[in-house]
Structures are given as structure tokens and as C-alpha cells.
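Hi support team,

I submitted a single chain yesterday and got back a structure, but I'm not sure I'm reading the C-alpha cell output correctly. Could someone confirm the output below corresponds to the sequence I sent? I've pasted both exactly as they appear in my results page.

Thanks,
R.
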Amino acid sequence: MDKPIQVIGGGLAGTEAAWQIASAGVPVILHEMRPQRFSPAHHSEQLAELVCSNSFGAQASDRAAGLLHEELRQLGSIIISKADEHAVPAGGALAVDRGQFSHDLTETLSHHPLIELRREDVRAIPEGIVVLATGPLTSPELAEDLRRFTGMEYLSFFDAASPIVVGESINRDIAFLASRYNKGEAAYLNCPMNREQYLRFWQELCAAEQVELKDFERETAKFFEACLPIEELARRGEDTMRYGPLKPVGLSDIRTGERPYAVAQLRQEDKAGQLWNMVGFQTNLRWGEQKRIFQLIPGLENAEFVRLGVMHRNTFINAPQLLKPTLQFKQHPTVLAAGQLIGTEGYTAAAAGGWLAGTNAARLVLGKEPLTLLPTTMMGALFEFISSASPKHFQPMPPNFGILPELGERIKNKQQRYGMYRDRALADLASWKAGLSLEFAEVHSLSLPFTGLTSAGN
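Hi R., thanks for writing in. Yes, this is the structure output for that exact sequence:
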């Protein structure tokens, strides 16, 4: 090997990519600009910092996110392995203690003999085999170099993070611990509202003062529908929030035994239960407005906020025009990309892109053909979609069953249909791995001394 593979960006995608490259026996340099330079969304210098939520989404494998988790487990993902290890109660979701999760990954990668972690701000795409995993907040200089490299402008949408509340400041005489329909462990604090309380909250939210966007942001602002600011939802109608993040179905107020008119939920942020994330309350309100309005929610009248909501522009490339389903650039096949930069949405999807880009970068060095995942798997369908969607209307895509090829028969029951998608995906993934014979198992068994992960062939 002439020189190591270069991975740019130490988020979820870059961390996963670097690990898969090193696990293939190939040296890798992982570049991370923090602490030399921070993005607007990052607060620590740890690798794989979770900036918007501590949740990886639904855990059940008959849910899209859960199926993606299971596929990554089968493929030896370091991100999902550490997420499982540092999981905190979250009902039916896979959520982690953010600090422990990122710290463990930083330590694990730092001690791998084939990984060199360089804390530096890379401002141009290096020569050789490269994985770009710089995320939606790529530095302006590197973004400009990528624009020249591709000959195309970035696309963009706006993303927002929810506030985090100190657990001791939540009024437990009002807020009650329960999961919807009593599914899984009771891991959400629920703040019930009657109709009068909800309408006052809704009216104040609609009239609240937002942070003003800069001129260039206003011209290109698009909201990603799966992560709309709470005030944007409120302005869409009186009942929009009651059918979204404030829906009361499946919950009963412990004081009355009846279903509330609306419910604001908080999800446990850390293992000790000292911090709670306001579910679905991503926002662009001014900080003073956030405190005033969110304290109108019953149970949060004395809430102390360790982090208030923030909003920032996320940028991504036009993947259908630029990328193959192997995550190689069509015109520059020695450069690969992964993470939200390519237009996938969510933590698990970022890890999945890192797995494929890292695996294929290593295969290029080893003289092997890059892999394309089967479209019947959630991973394969996601990368097939972002590489073949309409370039004109391309927007970030989260994992979902709608992108999978249809089943051979029509199944009306949704739960049964999703279960059949799962069964087909996992069976096809197992056959795909078997088709790679010992090559795949031998490559990934190299990760065993460092993580305790089982070989991907097992």
C-alpha cells in the first residue's frame, strides 16, 4: 500500500468508515477538525458526537430504523455495537448516553494500531483514496473545494435541535412516567394538557419571535419534513401538533385516568435520568421565547434548560447526479462519500453509509470490486434511492419501507407487511454475505481484538 486511506470527518459516518477500513487491515488517517474548529452544532471534541437527539429511532426490527439497526449488527458495525452497549431506557427506541457513547468510540478508535487520528481542519480534498464524511455542516473552505470538485452547488435544508431539561426541575406531580400503549419500559415523562392549556400554548407558539435568518439562508430555506420546528408545525393549524409530537393517543393522565387533550413528551437523555430531551420540540425560537413558552407546559413551569433549541442549515450534495450505489463519485471513483452529506437522514443511516464507504474504500486498496448492497435490504434500498432518485427534486431520505421493492403479494395488515419486509431483508442479507464466502468473514474478523464484535460471517 502506497499510503493510508484518508477519511475526512469524525462524525458517525466517518467513525464507522475508519473502523471498517482498519478492520480490513488497511491503514487509515481519520481527520477531525475539532477542537481546532467547531461547527455551530457541536459542543465537544469527541468522535461521533450526537448533536440533535440521543435516539437512533425505533428498536423493533419490523420498523424501518430497527431493521437498519439489525442489518448493521449483522455487518459488524462499531456504531451500533457501542449504541447497544451504552443504551438508556427509551421505550421502544434505541437511545444512548451521549457522553459515554462518544467517549468510548473516541477511545476505541484512538487505540487502534491502524488508525491515526489527526485533529486538523482539512480544507481541500486530498489525493488518493478518500472518504468524505464531513456532514451537513462541512466547513466553508472544504465545501467550496467540493463544489469545484463536483462542478455543482450544494442543496440545503434547515435542521433544528430540541431543548434539554434538568430532570429535577420537572414537576412529577403532573408529569408522569409511561410509554405509549404501555409498550416497552416506561421511559417517557409525559406532560398532559387540557384543551384550554393546549390552546394557550398553541397561540403563544404561533406568535413567538424566531431567530431571524440571514439573507442567503432565507433565499434557500427548506425544512426537512421529518424534523420540522415545533413553531412551524403550530402555524400549520390548531390541531397539527396534536396529530404529531403532542399526540395523546395511547396515554392516560395518572391523575384522572383519562386521555389528555394533548401530551408533551420528554425522553431520557442519560443513564442517570438527570437530563430529559423534549421530544419533537426542535425549534428556531429565540432563547427567551423558548423559556417563556415551554414553561407554559404543565409540569415544566419551573423547568431548567441545560440546552435550548437551535437551528442551522444542513447542506448535502445532489447524490443522484454524483454518486454510484457503491457511494463512489461517478467521475472520481477513488473518492467516496457518506453520512448526511449524501442526503441520507438520521444517525443509523449515517452509520450505514460509513460502513459501505469504508468497506469499499478498503476494497479499492485491496484490489477488490466495490460492493453494492441488495435493494431488498434497508441499506441497499437507501443507497439505491439516493443514487437514482430524480435529481431535480432530491431531498434527504430517512430509512423507510416505502423505498423497498414491493413484496410478491399484497398484504393489507401493515404490521404483517413490515414483518415480511424485515424477514426478506435479513434472509437476503444472509445469502449475500454467504455469497462473498470466506473473504467477507476474514476481513471483518480483524475487528475482534478491538471491540469484541462477532465476525460478520457468524
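A quick pointer for reading it: Residues 5-154+317-451 form a domain with the FAD/NAD(P)-binding domain fold (CATH 3.50.50.60). Let us know if anything else looks off.

Best,
Support desk
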